[in-house]
């Protein structure tokens, strides 16, 4: 990868140029942003400059598997753009009010999880691309692979649950990360379940995974497993502690969980406002988990006059 | 309605008193026109012109000409 070239025009504008020739799907995604959403034109180059060619390789692998045709890629990239715009717009309101827009879980579910069009066109592509384009999401993945996956690899029993699978991204990482992992994904959204099934199958991993459409609180699985994932679910719930208690029941004694939450991050379906990682840690402890390690990452450096910066707190628990 | 009113919004959001806009102006022509400032610009325009943009419209604002077309469609008679 060549070093960044920054060109300054007469107005002082900067246009970043990163060599993406080795990652053609990422290059096409960047061109779509340049052509259709110019104010996001530098987004991909910025994150590749920050995190290096490995990010581009990972993103390219994902885009190639899930959106191999140009039309599919364009829909996904533009879906991401709308997802990001919604988040930015809600954040502008949040800066003023300091509160999420009041919404029940049922309202959020109706608006988001049970809306096939919204999930397919905007929400799922948005979440998936955010794992690469939002620095705090990418750092969450780094922590997961460096620390949690190391524990998984050391174990003789590598069965896991992933509760609230979303796009299936972390389930796929578990399956890719070790040839002996076997997983069950749980979600209430039919569209998320279908997307996750396609996602896992696109990487040839379907033989070690199955999806279950269910509410983990109302119908908690009976079997406990040695590993558990639940990535950015808590902020979607009216009662996160009830959910965490259900998760505690399905994590085997001595097992390890990877549980994360978004903080100060308004979104269409975020209804529980966490302001600090310690709030999440307190709930984990109340639900019976022991926090072993945690990492938090901010979405960006604080901007002038900003009160809040979105953050992710990720916990490894027993 | 003169384009000056829109231009003044741009100048305030991007903190550049000498900034000029044309129908072809895009984010690549203006310093610091990133995602954040795009939303700040949209909110400032909504306030100034008493309009509301949908998410898809915000995404589709590839250049200032698109923005003016949208404003005209919302009843703002802007002249270049």
Structural descriptors:
heterodimer, A: 318 residues, alpha/beta, Rossmann fold, 2 domains, two-stranded antiparallel sheet, 11 helices, 48% helix, globular, B: 80 residues, mainly alpha, Non-ribosomal Peptide Synthetase Peptidyl Carrier Protein, Chain A, 4 helices
How does this model look, in words?
The complex is a heterodimer of chains A (318) and B (80). Chain A is 48% helix and 18% strand. Chain A has helices at residues 24-36, 43-51, 53-66, 70-97, 105-113, 116-133, 135-154, 169-177, 190-202, 240-250, 277-286, and strands spanning 5-8, 14-17, 159-163, 182-187, 209-213, 225-230, 251-263, 291-298, 311-317. In chain A, helix 1 packs across helix 4 (70-97), helix 6 crosses helix 7 (135-154) and helix 6 packs across helix 9 (190-202). By secondary structure, chain B is mainly α. Chain B has a single domain (4-73), classed as ACP-like (Non-ribosomal Peptide Synthetase Peptidyl Carrier Protein, Chain A, Orthogonal Bundle), CATH 1.10.1200.10. Helices cover 50% and strands 0% of the residues of chain B. Chain B is built from four helices and no strands. The longest helix of chain B has 15 residues, at 35-49. Chain B is globular. The model of chain B has no long low-confidence stretch (mean pLDDT 92). Chain A binds chain B through residues 9, 11-15, 34-43, 78, 81-82, 84-86, 88-89, 91-92, 303, and chain B through 19, 26-31, 33-40, 42-43, 55-56, 58-63.
- List the total number of helices of chain A: 11
For this structure, the quaternary state is heterodimer
Which percent range fits the helix content of chain B? 40-55%
Uncertain spans of chain A? 1-13
Q: Rg of chain B to the nearest angstrom?
A: 11 Å
Shape of chain B: globular
Strand share of the residues of chain B? under 5%
Given this structure, which CATH class of chain B is correct?
Mainly Alpha
Q: How confident overall, as mean pLDDT of chain B?
A: 92
Overall pLDDT level of chain A: 92
Main sheet characteristics of chain A: 7 strands, mixed
Low-confidence stretches of chain B: none
CATH topology of the largest domain in chain A: Rossmann fold
